[in-house]
Automatic annotation (TrEMBL):
It comes from the Eukaryota. InterPro entries: ARM-like, ARM-type_fold, XPO2_C. It comes from Volvox reticuliferus. Pfam families: CAS_CSE1 (PF03378). This is Exportin-2 C-terminal domain-containing protein. GO terms for cellular component: cytosol; nuclear envelope. Transmembrane segments: none annotated. Residues 1-361 form the Exportin-2 C-terminal domain. GO terms for molecular function: nuclear export signal receptor activity; small GTPase binding. PANTHER family: EXPORTIN-2, IMPORTIN-7, 8, 11. GO terms for biological process: protein export from nucleus; protein import into nucleus.
């Protein structure tokens, strides 16, 4: 099975003419192993083969995604109905891959699948969490309006609340709330924002960690970049007047220097510009002059420092599954179903230039 996966990857999009034959056989094999999933390595490479086939087959013919769905959905339905726990993380990853490849709107079948995904039964198994979070992100991106119209946003926020309370999974909670901010209009969730902020502040005051602070700062930066510094302060004031200055002093300034990753650094630097130029009453001569100067200095240091961007991001084409320890229903990432990230702040081609020009205007 590992050899089959490697052949599909090696051949690439040229697999398209025989992809349906391969798909039918792989789907039939999946149904067989559902009866007795006793060989973890075989099962892993079976799903890697399916993911590779989807990846390269749809690259050659994007419209063929429908054929993949028709062939795989009966097998996936069997996995979920029979509660084959070992396969849940794999099925959720392939579902995500298929949704990400599809243009909106999604077919009705996907909307029918969505409500059961919020069942606590799935989320109680930690091996499911990364795959389910990615699946929720895919739904929010491609069917955000349908999620809201179907009355499912409260349940999605319930998942966010559960994850953000966990030190092991709090970053997964931020992935969900980031997807909500990126994909939904503010009026869809503005009524829940005070509760969302409060949940974050409870962690910051009670059991914050460096990881939590980094993800919080990236979320705050995302909100500032999308809605502006003034609107962000207005929403935060509904929880506690002037709390944005406390957050800048106690969380933003100590944390931003340690934030790495191309997208994350772009968000915090662009947000930093908006904070020192758009926040009413926040200036070099106002009541918060010392804090303003510190935020500006931190921004200059961040832009001039550079170097570490993306250091923590690694792409591996093929993880050797035999080296993974403790396999049961644990999460095993499918390399061939890896997520294609959307560009962050695509309208700003060069964030460093954007920041430098803004700082020059502030200096003038």
């Amino acid at each position: 099975m590992k050899a089959i996966m490697r052949v599909i990857v090696f051949v690439g999009p040229a697999i398209a003419p025989v992809s349906q034959v391969c798909l039918q056989r792989l789907a039939a094999t999946l149904v067989e192993v559902c009866r007795n999933p006793r060989n973890p390595s075989f099962n892993h490479y079976l799903f890697e083969s399916v993911a590779a086939l989807i990846r390269h087959g749809t690259a050659a013919n994007p419209a063929s995604v429908t054929q993949y769905e028709q062939a795989l959905f009966p097998a996936f339905e069997l996995v979920l109905q029979q509660d084959v726990q070992e396969f849940h993380p794999y099925v959720f990853q392939v579902f995500s891959q298929l949704i990400e490849l599809r243009p909106a709107p999604l077919p009705q079948i996907y909307l029918q699948i969505f409500p059961p995904l919020l069942s606590p039964m799935f989320w109680e198994r930690s091996g499911n969490v990364p795959a389910l979070v990615r699946l929720l992100q895919a739904y929010l991106t491609k069917a955000g309006d349908e999620v809201v119209a179907g009355g499912h946003l409260v349940a999605v926020l319930g998942v966010f609340q559960k994850l953000i309370a966990s030190r092991a999974h709090d970053h997964e909670g931020f992935y969900i709330i980031n997807a909500i901010v990126e994909s939904l209009p503010l009026q869809a969730y503005v009524q829940y924002l005070p509760s969302i902020w409060t949940l974050m502040f409870q962690r910051l005051s009670g059991s914050k960690t460096p990881k939590f602070c980094r993800f919080f700062c990236v979320f705050l930066a995302l909100f500032v970049c999308k809605y502006g510094a003034a609107a962000t302060a207005e929403q935060l004031d509904k929880v506690q007047a002037g709390i944005i200055y406390m957050l800048l002093q106690q969380v933003w300034l100590p944390t931003v220097p340690s934030i790495e990753g191309t997208d994350e650094e772009k968000l915090v630097t662009v947000a930093g510009v908006k904070l020192i130029t758009e926040l009413p009453g926040f200036s070099a001569t106002g009541a918060q002059a010392a804090l303003w100067a510190a935020v500006r200095k931190g921004l200059v240091d961040k832009v001039s420092g550079g170097g570490a961007a993306g250091a923590a991001q690694q792409e591996e084409e093929e993880a050797d599954f035999e080296e993974m320890q403790g396999y049961s229903a644990a999460y095993a990432r499918l390399a061939n179903a890896s997520k294609v990230e959307r560009p962050v702040l695509a309208e700003i081609a060069d964030s460093k230039k954007f920041v430098q020009e803004a700082l020059a205007r502030v200096g003038a």
